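Dear H.,

Thanks for agreeing to be a second pair of eyes. The structure we're designing against is below in token form, covering all 292 positions.
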């Protein structure tokens, strides 16, 4: 029983980070109908940048500076690369996000190499025992941080003018525009917020597991969580992130240990195939039905 509780606890902790990263994908998709394939690299960017800044600034200031720079990067990407493609074929936009992802990744590797970078020990390390289960303090910190950020974002979308405008654009761009909402401004806000969310995910995950190029692979795994919850559903992204963490660590961890080594690394992509075959719109995604 303790073995399974350990897997569940670790799965929930990592799943909370997946939920945060998944929100970045969904925020952009809901507002712009663009699936941002460069988002995993924004996660990697946040982790790398925070590790560099903590050597020159106090830890809280380094995290704040990382968040601000990530938001600025989101604005720059939207203004320089996405806005000129407004109204262009969707395939062209998707290819641009793929290209941006590879450019960002290459830039980061060129600056900081491929070796794993770790944060200085500002945060508690080790484990805490709860009912015989050794809970890593880094995982507990990740879970609490993710829950706080998710609560903050939900409050933002429901109680601020920008958040409400973003929800209106997500529901119907034409109607929102006719009511005076600037689509271009909302698109810019969406990219900035998604970039910030991705950077925070990179910081939290990097603090736990270290930062290297594989962190971008973790961001790509989150596609499974998004498809499971629904591409245009924020609650679905949150639930999908937690479910992905549980499936990866409980089922994938057991299969990895007893039947097929390496299965844990591919379980997210197996989940993608199953979801697309059984329920293509996810648990909470909007089904688009075309009648001829």
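And this is the sequence the design step returned. I haven't edited it by hand at all.
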């Amino acid at each position: 029983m303790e073995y399974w509780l350990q897997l569940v606890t670790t799965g929930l902790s990592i799943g909370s980070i997946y939920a945060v990263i998944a929100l970045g994908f969904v925020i952009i998709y809901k507002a712009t109908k663009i699936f941002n394939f460069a988002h995993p690299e924004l996660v990697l960017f946040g982790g790398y940048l925070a590790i560099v800044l903590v050597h020159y600034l106090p830890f809280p200031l380094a995290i704040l500076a990382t968040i601000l720079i990530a938001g600025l990067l989101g604005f720059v990407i939207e203004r320089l690369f996405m806005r000129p493609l407004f109204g262009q074929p969707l395939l062209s936009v998707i290819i641009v996000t793929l290209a941006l992802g590879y450019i960002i990744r290459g830039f980061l590797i060129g600056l900081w190499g491929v070796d794993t970078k770790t944060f200085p020990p500002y945060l508690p390390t080790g484990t805490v025992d709860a009912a015989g289960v050794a809970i890593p303090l880094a995982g507990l910190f990740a879970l609490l941080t993710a829950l706080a950020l998710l609560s903050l974002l939900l409050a933002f979308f429901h109680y601020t003018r920008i958040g409400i405008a973003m929800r209106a654009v997500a529901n119907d761009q034409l109607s929102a525009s006719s009511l005076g909402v600037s689509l271009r401004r909302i698109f810019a806000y969406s990219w900035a917020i998604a970039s910030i969310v991705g950077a925070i995910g990179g910081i939290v995950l990097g603090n736990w597991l270290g930062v290297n190029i594989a962190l971008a692979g973790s961001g790509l795994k989150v596609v499974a969580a998004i498809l499971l919850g629904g591409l245009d559903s924020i609650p679905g992204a949150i639930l999908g992130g937690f479910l992905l963490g549980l499936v990866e660590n409980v089922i994938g961890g057991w299969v990895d240990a007893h039947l097929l080594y390496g299965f844990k690394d591919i379980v997210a992509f197996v989940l993608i195939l199953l979801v697309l075959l059984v329920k293509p719109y996810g648990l909470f995604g909007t089904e688009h039905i075309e009648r001829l």
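Two observations from my side: The chain has a mean pLDDT of 81. Residues 2-32 form the longest helix (31 residues).

Warmly,
E.
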